[in-house]
Write a structure and sequence with these properties.
- The chain is an alpha/beta fold and about 525 residues long.
- The chain has 24 helices and 14 strands.
- The strands form 3 sheets. A 7-stranded mixed sheet has the order 8-7-6-9-10-11-14, sandwiched between helices.
- A hairpin with a 2-residue loop joins β7 and β8.
- The longest helix is centred in the middle third of the chain and has 21 residues.
- About 50% of the residues are buried.
C-alpha cells in the first residue's frame, strides 16, 4: 500500500483499488464511508467496465470511456485490456486512435504525457524534471506531422504517443512508471487546426531547418542527461525527417523509428509466414511495393538484410524488390527518383502498376500509400492471375485509408489471396469458406523490442534486432492459424509474442556485444519476472 491516505488514496490512479479495498484496508486507510458497502474483486470490476464500455454506440465513445478509466484506475484499465486484447486494442490504438487524434482537442479531459514547444528551448531538461517518475525507460515521441495516414495533426498527435505507451504496458508488461509519452509540439501547417478555437497546440507554422533540428537535438540530449537508460521511439514523423533523425541519432543513442523499423519487421514476419502457405522459398520471392514513404522504404531495406541472411548477395537481394508510385513502376531510366529508392530502380521499361505486375510477376504485393482503394479490382485480379496464392499486404491505416478491404481482396481473387492489413478487418465468408485476415499490427513488434532492450540494458537498437524479431514473430503463428489463412498469431497471445521477441533481442544484444553486464542463462524466466502484472 502507498503512503497515500483517505480521499487522496482513493483518487490516485496508480494506487487506487476503488471498490476492491477490503474492510480492513478501508479501516486502516481512512476510506470508511467513502465507498459503497460492497467489496468487489478486480474480476467483478472488470465485468462492470466491459458492460459499460459495450453500451457505447461508437468506437470513439468507447475510446473516451477507456481513456477516462486509465486516468481513474490504472491497474483496472490494464487488467481489462490484457484480458480482452482483441476487443480493446483496436479501441485504444488503430483504427480508433486516428479518429481520437483528429478530435483530440475536442475530447480532451485530463493531461497525459509531456509537451515541449519552441518556447521551452534552452530549458527542456528543466521541463523534463517536472515529469513525476524519475526512472523513465521508454519514451514515445512524435511531432504530429504525419499521423497514420491522416497528415499533419499538430499537438493532437499526442494521442499516438499515449496509445503506444499503453501498448508497451499491455502488450509487453513494461511498467507504466517506466513509460513517458512526449509531444514535440513545433507548430502545425494545418490551418484548420490553428484556426480551431479549441485547439490546444502551439498555434504557429511548423519549425523547419536548423531551428527544428535544434529543438530535437536539445530534447535528445536532455533525455540522455535526465533519463540515461531510456529507449526513444520516434513515431509518425514525416518521411524525410523520420530518416534524417534515425540517421542522426541511431548510432549514438538507444532509439528507433517504429514507422520505418517496426513496420518493416511486422511486414517481413507476414511474408515469412506466407511461405508456409504458398510452399515457396523466401529466397526465391519477388516483392513489389506500392508507395515510397518511410514504411515501404524501411521494409525494403530490412528485406535486403533478410534476403542476404537467406544466402543472396546485396545486389541479388535488391533485384527482388520493386517499387511503384503514382507515376507507375519505378525504373532506372526515370529522371527523378528518391535517393533511398534508387537502389530499387531496376532496368525495365516504364509501365503502369497493373502492367508491372503482369511483367514482373511478384509473389507478394505490399501497400503503404495511406490512400484508400489503390489496390483496385484490376490490381488484385492481376496478382491472382500471376500467382496461385497471391500474397497481398495492405499496411495503411486507419481502416478508411487501407489500400483495399479484406472482403475485396478475397472476392477479387476468388478466395485465393493470402491477405493481411495494418488495420483490423472482420472475418470474411466467401464461397462457404470463412477467412480470418491477419493484422500486421506493429504491436507485435515494438513492445517486445522495448522489453528486450530494457531487460538487456542494450546500448543501441540495431537492424539485426528487428530481423530477429520478424523471424520470432513468424514462428509464433500456429498451424491452426495458418489453416484459417492468417499470417499473424491471435492478438490475445501478444504478451507471449513480446516475451519471445524480448528473448531474441537479448540474444542479439549478446551476439553484437552491446551488453553492459552478463545476462541470466534462463532469459525467458528472467524476462517473465520483469513483466508488469496489473493486479491488486
Amino acid at each position: 500500500m502507498s503512503n497515500l491516505y483517505g480521499k487522496t488514496l482513493l483518487d490516485n490512479p496508480v494506487s487506487t483499488k476503488s471498490t476492491a479495498f477490503s474492510r480492513q484496508e478501508r479501516q486502516e486507510n481512512g476510506l470508511r464511508g467513502l465507498l459503497p458497502y460492497g467489496v468487489s474483486s478486480i474480476d467483478k470490476q472488470k465485468a462492470r467496465v466491459l458492460e459499460n464500455m459495450r453500451r457505447k454506440s461508437s468506437a470513439i465513445e468507447k475510446y473516451i470511456f477507456l481513456n477516462a478509466l486509465l486516468e481513474r484506475n490504472q491497474r483496472l484499465f490494464y487488467r481489462t485490456m490484457i484480458d480482452h486484447m482483441e476487443e480493446i486494442l483496436p479501441l485504444v490504438y488503430t483504427p480508433t486512435v486516428g479518429e481520437a487524434c483528429k478530435e483530440f482537442a475536442h475530447i480532451f479531459r485530463r493531461p497525459q504525457g509531456l509537451y515541449l514547444t519552441p518556447e521551452d528551448c534552452g530549458q527542456i531538461e528543466t521541463v523534463l524534471e517536472n515529469w513525476p517518475e524519475k526512472d523513465v525507460r521508454v519514451i514515445v515521441v512524435t511531432d504530429g506531422e504525419r499521423i497514420l495516414g491522416l497528415g499533419d495533426l499538430g499537438a493532437n498527435g499526442m494521442g499516438i504517443s499515449i496509445g503506444k505507451t499503453a501498448l508497451y504496458v499491455a502488450c509487453a508488461g513494461i511498467s507504466p512508471a517506466y513509460c513517458m509519452p512526449v509531444m514535440l509540439d513545433v507548430g502545425t501547417n494545418n490551418p484548420s487546426l490553428r484556426e480551431d478555437p479549441l485547439y490546444l497546440g502551439y498555434p504557429h507554422e511548423r519549425l523547419k531547418g536548423d531551428a527544428y533540428l535544434s529543438i530535437v537535438d536539445e530534447f535528445v540530449n536532455a533525455v540522455q542527461n535526465r533519463f540515461p537508460k531510456t529507449l526513444i521511439q520516434f513515431e509518425d514523423f514525416l518521411t524525410p525527417n523520420a530518416f534524417k533523425l534515425l540517421e542522426r541519432y541511431g548510432t549514438e543513442i538507444c532509439c528507433f523509428n517504429d514507422d520505418i523499423q517496426g513496420t518493416a519487421a511486422v511486414t517481413l514476419a507476414g511474408v515469412y509466414t506466407s511461405c508456409r502457405i504458398t510452399q515457396k522459398d523466401f529466397s526465391d520471392l519477388s516483392i513489389m511495393f506500392l508507395g515510397t514513404g518511410s514504411a515501404a522504404t524501411g521494409t525494403a531495406e530490412l528485406m535486403v538484410d533478410a534476403f542476404c541472411a537467406a544466402g543472396l548477395s546485396k545486389q541479388q537481394a535488391r533485384e527482388r524488390l520493386w517499387f511503384v508510385d503514382k507515376e507507375g513502376l519505378v525504373v532506372s531510366s526515370r529522371g527523378s527518383v528518391k535517393s533511398r529508392i534508387k537502389q530499387f530502380a531496376h532496368d525495365h521499361e516504364a509501365c503502369s502498376f497493373v502492367d508491372g505486375i503482369a511483367s514482373i510477376r511478384p509473389d507478394v504485393l505490399i501497400g503503404a500509400t495511406g490512400v484508400a482503394g489503390t489496390f483496385t479490382e484490376a490490381v488484385v485480379r492481376q496478382m491472382a492471375t500471376v500467382n496461385k496464392r497471391p500474397v497481398i499486404i495492405a499496411l495503411s491505416n486507419p481502416t478508411t485509408h487501407t489500400e483495399c478491404t479484406a472482403e475485396e481482396a478475397y472476392r477479387w481473387s476468388d478466395g485465393r489471396v493470402i491477405f493481411a492489413s495494418g488495420s483490423p478487418f472482420d472475418p470474411v465468408q466467401y464461397n462457404n469458406v470463412r477467412f480470418e485476415p491477419g493484422q500486421g499490427n506493429n504491436a507485435y513488434i515494438f513492445p517486445g523490442i522495448g522489453l528486450g532492450v530494457l531487460a538487456s540494458s542494450a546500448r543501441r537498437v540495431t537492424q539485426k534486432m528487428f530481423l530477429s524479431a520478424a523471424e520470432t514473430l513468424s514462428r509464433q503463428v500456429t498451424d491452426a492459424e495458418i489453416a484459417k489463412g492468417a499470417v499473424y498469431p491471435s492478438l490475445k497471445h501478444v504478451r507471449d509474442v513480446s516475451r519471445a521477441i524480448a528473448v531474441s533481442v537479448c540474444q542479439t544484444v549478446i551476439q553484437e556485444g552491446l551488453v553492459h553486464e552478463a545476462l541470466p542463462e534462463n532469459l525467458d524466466g528472467y524476462i517473465q519476472s520483469l513483466m508488469y502484472e496489473p493486479n491488486y
